[in-house]
Amino acid sequence: MLYRETGQIKTDYKSDMAMFPIAQDRWFIYGCVAVAVIGLPLFASSYIIEAFLIPILIWSLAALSLNMLLGYCGQLSLGHGAFMAVGAYAAYNFATRIPELNIFIVFILAGLCAAAVSVLFGLPSMRIKGFYLAVSTLAAQFVIEWVFSTVTWFSGDNAMGTVDTPAIVIFGYKLESSIDLYMFCLVINIVLFVLAKNLVRGSVGRSWMAIRDMDVAASVIGIRLLPAKLLAFGVSGFYAGVAGAMYAFVYLKACDITSFDLFQSFNILFMVIIGGMGSVMGAYFGAAFILLLPIVLNITFQTFFATSGFAGLVSNIEHMVFGGLIMFFLIVEPLGLARLWSTAKEKLRLWPFPH
Amino acid sequence: MTKRKLFLTALAIGMMTAAVTETALAQDKKSDPNKEQFIPVLVYRTGPFAAGGTGIPGGMMDYFELLNQRDGGINGIKLVWEECDTAYKTDRGVECYERLKKNGAKGIPFIHPMSTGVAYALLERATKDKIPVVQIGYGRTDSSDGRVFPYSFPLLTNYWSQNSAKIRYMAQILGGEDKLKGVKIVNLHLKHPYGEETKPMLDAMAKRFGFEVTHIPVPWPGIDQKSLWLQIRQIKPDFVINRNWGVSCTVPLREAARIGFPRDRIIGVWWCGAEEDVIPAGKAAKGYITAAFHSVGTDSPVIQDMFEHVYGKMKGNVSASRVGSVFYNRGVVWGIISTEAIRLAQKKFGVGPVSGEQMQWAFENLELDAARIKELGAEGLVPEIKVSCFDHEGGGRVRFQQWDGKKWNMITDWIPSYAKMVRKMIEESAAKYAKDKGITPRNCAA
Amino acid sequence: MFVLEVFISGLLSGVMYSLVALGFVLIFKASGVFNFAQGAMVLLAALTFVRFIEMGIPLWLAAIMTFGVMIVLAIFIERFLLRPLVNQPLITLFMLTIGLNYFLEGLAQAVWDAEVHGLDIGIEDVPWVGLEQATGLLISMFDVISALIAMGLVIILSIVFNKTKVGRALRAVSNDHQAAMSVGIPLNRIWVIVWAMSGLVALVAGALWGTRLGVQFSLSIVALKALPVLILGGFNSIMGAIVAGLIIGASEKLGEVFLGPYVGGGIESFFPYVLAMMVLFWRPQGLFGDVIIERV
After folding, report:
1. What is the pLDDT of residue B140?
2. Residue A282 above 50 pLDDT?
3. Which of B7, B46, B192 sits opposite A149 (nearest CB)?
4. What is the per-residue burial (b if ≥16 Cβ within 10 Å, else e) of B286-295?
5. Mutate to test the interface with A, among C82, C218, C277 (most CBs of A within 10 A)
6. Which CATH architecture describes the domain A22-350?
7. Can you tell me the distance from the alpha carbon of A252 to that of A258, in angstroms, rounded to the nearest whole number?
8. Does residue A35 belong to the interface with chain C, where contact is any CB pair within 8 Å?
9. Distance linking the first and last C-alpha atoms of chain B
10. What dihedral do alpha carbons A338, A340, A345, A350 form, nearest 10°?
C-alpha cells in the first residue's frame, strides 16, 4: 500500500533518468543518509563506530570495487587486497613525502596509482577468461606483496617494516575523535557510491553487463572489449585503492603488507558473492555480513559459554556456525542478500493484496 | 519445508538468541565492581597459530586464577577477566580492544595485544585512551624508548636485544667474541615485517664483529623450503637463525635433516621454540636450540601451585598436560609481570581497581628483583626486570634452550644483550617516529 | 650438478603440489565448481587419520576408517548442499564451498582438537644414502616414496576415469549435467562418488603433507600452493595437474635459487603465477584443459 509507484508520473526526461525513480525509494535513501549523518554520530557509542561502522564503510567500498569488476563486468579478481595495498602505500608515500598535499588529493592520487596497477594486471583479460583469469590477479596479489616487502623505499626505509600513517588533517583541522573519522569515511563513501551507481546504470555499465553476459556477443554489437574491460579494471582499482588508503589511514593507523594478504582478497570476494553480484546495495549487505556476523557470533557465544571451560570448542563451533549460515543463506537465496532485498520490495509493492 | 518457512525459522531463532543474550548480559552485573580488577584477555583459538593463541592466554589466566584461589586476589581485589577471540586478525583485535576497553570500574588496566599487527594498530588508540599496551617478547621494538612511546611496553626483551644475545651466545660456543670473525651466519627469516625486522640489527653486528650474514627470506606460507636449504647448503654457514612463525618454524628442521645440517647450529627465535614447533618435526628436531626469555618445565613452585590450586579445583584454562610447556609458562610470566604491576599501582594509588593511567606509572616503575622473584616462586622462570620512563624494555636478557627429542632443557643462564648498541638503534628509530608524528619526547629526568 | 639437484628436488616438490591439485580437479571435472573447501578436507582427513592412529588403531585400518568418514561426508554434502542447489549459477556453488570450508575447518577442530600432532607413517625423511654415494645427489627417501604414491594415485584415477563405467558416467556429467541426467545417469550418485574420491585424494595428501608439517591447521593452507598448478594444468585435467605440478615445482625452485638472490629473494611466492600467466597467454585453457569454444 505504502510502497508503489502508481501515480508517480514521469513528466520529463530528467525524472525518468533519476537515480531512484520511485519516490519511496528516494525517501528511504534520504532517511538512511540522514540516520548515517545525524543519527548514528549522536547515538552510537564509540565502540559501535570504531568497531562496526567505520569498517563497514571501508569494506563496502572494497566490495563495491570488486562488484563493479566481477558483478557488472564479469571479470574475476583475487587480487583486490593487493590493489588496496597499492592505494595504502601510495597514500602513505604521497602524504609523507609531500606533506602539504590535501588529504583528499592524496586519496585520489592513491586511487589512481591503484587503478594503474590494476589496469596493468587487467591486460591479460583480453586473452584469459573465466576462472582462469584468477591467475593474473593472483599474480598481482603475490607480486605486489613481494614488491612492498622487498623494496623498503615504499615504507620509508623503516626498520620495522610496518609504517605509521600520518594523522588526517583537513584544512588545518586534525581528525582525531571516532566521530570525525566516521564522518570522513562517510563522505568519501557516499560520494563514491553515488558515482558508482551512476556509472553502472549509464552506457559504461551497460557495456560492462553486455561483456559479463557474453563477451563475444558484446563485441558483435560493437562494444570494444579491451577498453571496456580495462576501464572496469581501472575504476575498480581506483575504488580499491581509496578503500585501502582509508583502511590504513583511518582504521589501522599503520600500514603493513600483511593487512592486505590473500585472505583479505578472498574476503572481498565473499562480500561480493554473499551481498549479491551486480548490485550496488549488495556491497553494504555483503560487507556487513562478512564483517559483523563473526563478531556477533563471538559475542553471543561468549556470553553463554565464557565460563564453561570449553572455550576452544566454542571458537570452533563459532566457525562452523559461520560457515553453516553462509551455506544456509545460499540455499535460501542463491543470488545473494541483495536479491532478498529486491524480493522484499516486490512483496511490499503488492502488499496487502497478494495478487 | 519451503524456503520461506526456513527463512522465518532462522529469523525467529536469531531474535530469540538476541533476547536471551540481553537477559544474560543483564544478569552478569551482580558483583561489586569496586572489589574487582577487570583484565581483558585476547586469544586466538583457531587458525594456523592457535597453539600460541591458546597456550599463552591459558597460562596467564591460570595465573590470575591462582591468585584468586590461593591469595584471594591482589590485596583482596579479585581478578576478573574476559576473553576475546581475535582469530589472529588485526581488525578483529581492534574490535576486541574497543569492545573491552570500557569494562571494569576504571576501564581496563592494560592490554596484551597478542600480535604485533594488533600492537601497531592499538598504539595510537591506546595512547589516546591512556591504556598501556604491553608486549612481552614481541611487538614494536623501537617503542622501548619510553620518552616517545609512553603507553607502549615491550617488556623483558625485544627482538633486537634477542638477536644480539644470540650473537653473544654464538661467541660463547665458539669460544670468544674474536672468534666471530669470518663466521658465516644465515638469517632465515619470514618475508614479513616481523621477519625483516632484525636485518638491520644483524647487519650492524656483522660489521662490528666481522662475521658474514646472509639474509634468506622465506616466502609465505613457508611450507616448502627446499630451494632455500639448497642455497644454505651452498653457503655452508656456521649458524642458521630460524626466524619464522607457526608451521614455517618446523619445516627448516626437516629440511636441515635432509641435507644433514647439524640441528644444534640452528638457533631459533622464541616464537619458533615451543613444543608445538618441534614435535611435528619428529627426530629431525633433536638438538635444536632456541632463545627464550623464561624457563620451561614444571619445576618452579609457582607452576606446582597451579596443579594444587587451579587444576586441583578444575579451574584450569588449558588441558593439564600443557602445564609447564613453553607457551604456557610464557603466559604465566606475562601474568606475573602484569599482576606485579597491578600490585605496585595499588601500593601507590590505594587498594582497589586501577586505571590505565595509574598502570602506566606502575609499569614504568616496575622492578622485580631476585628476592621478589623468589618470593613469587618463580626463580629462573622470570628474569629480573627494572623498567623506567627512559627504558620500557627493562631487561634484555635471554636464555637458551635445547630440544632433546622429548622436552626442552635450559642450557644457559641469562645472557645479556649488547644493550648499548641496541639502545642506539632504538633511539634512532624512535626519534624518526617522533619527528614524523610531531611528538615531543618526554623529559624523563623531570 | 647443483642445477640437477635443484631440478630434481623441484620436481619432487611439484608432485606434492599436484597431489593436492588432484582433489580440485576431480570436483571441477564433475561439477564445474572450484572447490574452495579442498584445503579443509585435507585438514579434516589428516586430523581424523592422526587421531585414529593415536587411539592405537593400526595404520592401514585408520586409513580405511578415515576414508569411510570422507565417504559419509561426501554423502552429507551431496544430500544437504548440492541437491538443493542444482542448476544454480556456478559462482553460488563456489560460494557454497567457501561456507563449507569454514564449516569443515571448525568441525575438524571441534571434533578432534586444534593442537599440533606429529604423524609418523613409517617413512624416514633422510637422504637416500645409496644415491648419494653413487652420484653425490642428496635426495630424500621420503620425497621419492611420496612421488611414487602420487604417481600411483594418478594412474588409478586415470584408469577409473577412462576405462570404467563410472568413469564414462563421470565424463558425461562433466560435459553436461542435464544431458547426462536425461540419458539416465544418476547425477546424485555420481556426485557422491566424486566427492568421496576427492576425499581419498585429500587423505593421501593430508597424510603425506602431515608427516612433513605435522597435522595442524596449516595443512589447509597447502591447498593454496596447488592453485597455480591447477590453473597451469587446466582445471579439468588429471594429466594436467601432474604435469603442471612438475613444471611449477622445478621452475620455482630453479627460479628461487638462481634468480632469487639477485632481486632480494623470496620470489617463489609469485613465480608460479607469473609462469602460469605466461603459459595461459599461449593456451588460455591451461596446458591440458578442454578447449573453450565460444558461440554467440
Report:
1. 85
2. yes
3. B192
4. bbbbbbbbbb
5. C277
6. Orthogonal Bundle (1.10)
7. 12
8. no
9. 74
10. 160
Cell of B244: 619464522
Query: In a 3-state reduction of DSSP, which class is residue C20?
Result: helix
Q: Which residues of B touch A146 (CB under 8 A)?
A: 191, 219
Cβ contact, residue pair B99, A256, below 8 Å: no
Q: Percentage of chain B with pLDDT > 90?
A: 7
DSSP notation for A27-69: HHHHHHHHIIIIIHHHHS-HHHIIIIIHHHHHHHHHHHHHIII
Q: Does C178 fall in a domain?
A: yes
Determine the structural domain holding residue C109 and report its residue range: 18-218
Element (H, E) at B213: strand B212-218
Contact A327 C292 (CB under 8 A): no
pLDDT of residue B1: 42
pLDDT in tens, B388-410: 888 888 877 888 999 988 888 88
Chain A residues 173-212 within an 8 A CB cutoff of chain C: none
Torsion of CA B296, B298, B304, B305, to 10 degrees: 30
pLDDT at C38: 92
C85:A277 CB<8 A: no
Residues of chain B found within 8 Å of residue C16, distances taken between Cβ atoms: 224
Residue A307 DSSP code: T
Grid cell at residue C50: 592422526
Question: Which of B48, B227, B281 is opposite residue C253, by nearest beta carbon?
Answer: B227
ipTM at complex level: 0.89
Minimal CA separation from C196 to chain B, in Å: 25
Confidence category of residue B18, pLDDT binned at 50, 70, 90: low
Quote the cell numbers at residue B142: 623501537
Chain B hits for C13, CB-CB cut-off 8 Å, are 224, 226
Q: How many domains does chain C have?
A: 1
Measure A159 CA to nearest chain B CA, in Å.
Answer: 6
Per the domain annotation, does C251 fall within a domain?
no
Let me know: does A159 contact B198? Beta carbons within 8 Å. Answer: no
**Which tens digits make up the pLDDT trace of C235-260?**
888 888 889 999 999 998 898 888 88
DSSP state of B143: G
User: Per the domain annotation, does C149 fall within a domain?
Assistant: yes
DSSP letters of B249-300?
Answer: HHHHHHHHHHHT--GGGEEE-GGG-SHHHHGGGGGGGTT-EEEESS--SS-S
Which position has the grid cell 557495456?
A207
Would you kindly state where each structural domain of chain A is located, as residue ranges? 22-350
Domains and CATH numbers, chain B: 35-157+298-396+420-437 (3.40.50.2300), 160-292 (3.40.50.2300)
Q: What is the pLDDT of residues B347-383, one digit of tens each?
A: 888 888 898 888 998 998 888 888 888 888 888 888 8
Between CA B214 and CA B236 the distance in angstroms is: 11
Q: In whole angstroms, give the CA distance from residue C157 to residue C147.
A: 15
Residue of B nearest to A261 (CA): B220
Report the Cα C18 to chain-centroid distance in Å: 6
Chain B contact set for A145 (CB, 8 A): 220
d(CA A145, CA C24): 26
The torsion angle over the Cα atoms of residues B326, B327, B333 and B338, rounded to 10 degrees, is: 180
Hey, are the CB atoms on C114 and A316 less than 8 Å from each other?
A: yes
Mark yes or no for CB contact B280/C120 under 8 Å. no
Q: Report the residue from A51, A96, A332 with minimal CB separation from B95.
A: A51
Does residue C119 form part of some domain? yes
Q: Residues 6 or more apart from A353 whose CB is under 8 A from it? A: none
Nearest residue on chain A to C114, judged by CA atoms?
A312
Q: Cα separation of B344 and B367, whole Å?
A: 9
CA–CA separation, A114 and A120 (whole Å): 10
